[in-house]
Amino acid sequence: MTSVSYFRTLILGTCNMLHKGPRPLVLCGPSGSGKSTLIKKLFEEFPDTFGYSVSHTTRSPREGEENGKHYHFTTKDKMQKQIEQNEFLETAVYSGNMYGTSKRAVEDVQEAGKICVLDVDVQGIKQIKQSSLDPFYIFIKPPSIEELEKRLRARKTETEDTLQRRLAVARTEIEYGEKPGNFDIVIENDNFSKAYEELKKFVISNLKQGETVTS
Ligand code: 5GP
Question: Mind listing the UniProt keywords for this protein, alphabetically (predicted)?
Fold first, then answer.
């Protein structure tokens, strides 16, 4: 059996034994930490195992972003109404825009029998900790604020104002991320391949642990 199919059998086998979905993965890390690229690589390597929880946001799409794939792009009014109707697991205001995970987004992935992967900020983490989701919490840390600034500038998606706002948020997120107990693992992304291997190892070993507990 290839390592990929072994991994898949292991996870889905664990899921059947538990008679409920496997624990989701929640990734958090400052904008520019490389979290989206790590998630993308995980999906490329294990396309049938993981499913992405597509968030809602009121920010404008960036070049290459597709509605319904990267985000559900929406308006403040529409999102506000859905929040009032209790349709969201968590919501946040980040750099002047609203973001949120709808309950539907998570259920869609779970109903497809996949492990749900969420990408949220620290505000989202705090709310998810109050919910029944019970995920693994993974923090992706940039090597430094200076490096983060360099990456955000190279990305050319921000104005000077939004870039400065993102850096200010990043400082508080890193502080929260590094605090013992807030995350199950903190992965420093100074080298992409190394960070990806660390992420993969964490996911595989935790799902193995789940199997041992239930068998
Ligand atoms: P970006 O605008 O760069 O795509 O995302 C900005 C921040 O919002 C990132 O830290 C990202 O993790 C976070 N984010 C994306 N989707 C959600 C969501 O559904 N909920 C929360 N709380 N944060 C989100």
Answer: ATP-binding, Kinase, Nucleotide-binding, Transferase
Indicate if ligand 1 lies below 6 Å from the C-beta of 173. Answer: no
Instruction: Compute CA distances 188 → 111, 117, 139, 197, whole Å.
Output: 32, 19, 8, 12
Domain count, the chain: 1
Q: Is the CB of 53 under 6 A from ligand 1?
A: no
**pTM for this structure?**
0.88
Pairing between strand 115-119 and 88-94? unpaired
Report the CATH number at residue 183: 3.40.50.300
Whether the per-residue pLDDT at 5 is higher than 80: the answer is no
Can you read off the two tokens belonging to residue 66?
Answer: 């597709």
Cβ of residue 59 lying under 6 Å from some atom of ligand 1: yes
State the pLDDT confidence band at 209, using cuts at 50, 70 and 90. Answer: low
Range of the domain at 199: 4-53+113-214
22-65: pLDDT as tens digits: 899 999 999 889 999 999 999 999 999 999 999 999 999 999 99
List 52's β-bridge partners, or say none.
117
How many angstroms is it from 100 CA to the middle of ligand 1? 8
Q: Is 188 helix (H, G, I), strand (E, B) or coil?
A: strand
How is residue 126 written in tokens? 């705090």
Spatial distance between the Cα atoms of 68 and 114, rounded to a whole number of angstroms? 18
What secondary structure letter does DSSP report for 22?
P
